[in-house]
Amino acid sequence: MPNIPAGDGRLQNDDAPQLGADLVPIRALIEAERKAFVEAPDDIKRAGYFCAYTPPELLNAAGLRHARLFKAGDPRTVSQGERYTQSVFCDFSKSCIGAFEPGSGDPFYRAVDKLYNFHTCASMKRASEVIEQFVPTTLFNLPRLRSEAASRRYFRDEIIRFRDDVAALAGRAITEDDVRAQIVRYNKARRLLKNLSELRKRPNPPLSGLDFLELVRGYYYLPPETLIDVYGKLHRKLSRLRDTGARPVRLMISGSIMAEGDRRLVALIEQEIGARVVVEDHCTGLRPFVHTVPEGGDPFQALADGYLDQAPCARMKPLEDSLELPAALAEEYGADGLVYVYLKFCACYGITRSAFVGHFQQLGIPVLELSSDYSHSDHGQLKTRIEAFIEILTDLRSEAAAGTALASRHGDSPRTEEQLQ
Ligand code: SF4
Predict the structure, then answer these.
(1) Which major enzyme category is it (predicted)?
(2) Is the dihedral of CA 27, 339, 126, 308 positive or negative?
(3) How many A from CA of 303 to the centre of ligand 1?
(4) 118: which of 19, 88, 203, 392 is 20 to 30 A away, CA to CA?
(5) CA pair distance 267, 208, nearest whole angstrom
(6) Each residue of 56-87: pLDDT tens digit?
(7) pLDDT band for position 319 (50/70/90)?
(8) How far is 145 from 155, CA to CA, in rounded Å?
(9) Ligand 1 center to residue 91 CA distance, Å?
(10) Within a 10 A sphere around the Cβ of 265, how many other Cβ atoms?
(11) Is 405 within a domain?
(12) Angle in degrees, CA 36, 38, 42, rounded to 5
């Protein structure tokens, strides 16, 4: 597999590290939680939610079983959902509908007593309006102008409405102290996840992009106390490892949701081509874990502020905010290039792609733009395009390394990679 050594730009073979055995405990915990969600003979109500703007702090404070519903990627479930939509909906939204369909849907989705959705894109709003016929559903509003004081007051009201709905489902009151305690716990879990991600800043990261997505999957199924324990142990172990081995080609992935069953692009990059995803700017990767929620003051305003301040998705305004974060992450994590990927018919990321791509090109960061769906028919085409992109990045690194070596022999200042493009 091709890797770029830090200094001279020559290609070498080096296997990307996979956590493997280290992921066994979290996978077992997720599976146990999923099983209990479907089968546990208890009276605890089950809540599902779609979007990373939903505060699990309130679901946990109510003592509900809860999970983010982002398992998608199966073409059969997409066609089940397509019977209720037009084909111009993205495959994720169609899959969400298909998974709730009585009789043929996913048993995990079918076990949900109540679905919560925050209005992000139009497709998902429509999807929750269809799903309403299968399971009780409440849709909340999410202000787009996240910096406005009025948006923050309004979102606090929506958070209160969410609290009341969740408390009614659980059949118990949620106090301010309950919410404060959950904010502290979830912040701790989010910080640990961010710290784990930061280990990927090393020249040869001790965990792969696929590994990190698996850790994020845990966040959406497991209670914060469990996450703190699992993430903490893993972080202690990985941070003690020495940073050895060759520097791989480092990629950032930005764009629309990468569902739990739709990791084939990352698998292709890491396992078939041998490059490494070192950071993501999407809502099932690092993006929701860059910020934390304020721990003092009114806990409902804190949730409103904390979730509006999280790294924004492309649906939020101003769009510049959604461009600045990925640019900063690409620099911090030393990404050689960006893969911008969006689902076909995605109204948010399909439309904003030119702004993203243009912004990165201006910064001198090479970009590969891909659109995909859950049909799996484009594997060969994706592989060819990614391989060609990796080759360009490899050449650029080699030229930069050669320029640095030549400049130091002649006592010149080294040329930057940007100057070479
Ligand atoms: S943002 Fe795009 S990918 Fe995500 S649900 Fe909406 S339309 Fe689908």
Answers:
(1) oxidoreductase
(2) positive
(3) 23
(4) 88
(5) 10
(6) 999 999 999 999 999 999 999 999 999 999 78
(7) confident
(8) 11
(9) 9
(10) 20
(11) no
(12) 60
pLDDT value of position 368: 97
Residue 222 within any structural domain of the chain: yes
Give the distance between the most distant pair of CA atoms in the chain: 76
**Residue 373: partners with Cβ closer than 8 Å, 6 or more residues away:** 78, 90, 91, 343, 344
Tokens linked to 25: 């405990």
Q: Does some domain include residue 46?
A: yes
* Per-residue pLDDT reduced to its tens digit, 193-241: 999 999 999 999 999 999 999 999 999 999 999 999 999 999 999 999 9
Cβ–ligand 1 distance for 256 under 6 Å, the answer: yes
Residue 4 located in a structural domain: no
Asked whether the predicted pLDDT for residue 16 surpasses 90, the reply is no
- Domain around 196: 22-398
Q: What does the DSSP assignment read for 232-291?
A: HHHHHHHHHS---SPPBPEEEEEES---TT--HHHHIIIIII--EEEEEESTTTTGGGS-
Domain count, the chain: 1
What share of residues in the chain are helix, strand, coil (percent, to 5)? 55, 10, 35
- Residue whose structure tokens are 């640990």: 192
Find the 410 Cα to ligand 1 centroid distance in Å: 52
Which residue's CA is minimally distant from atom 6 of ligand 1? 121
Q: How far apart are CA 162 and CA 170, in angstroms?
A: 12
The model carries a pTM of 0.91
How many whole angstroms from its chain centre is CA 361?
23
Q: Determine which residue's CA is closest to atom 2 belonging to ligand 1.
A: 346
Pairing of strands 337-343, 367-372: parallel
Amino acid in position 379: H
Q: Give the pair of three-digit tokens for residue 17.
A: 């590290």
Given this model, what pLDDT does residue 405 score?
67
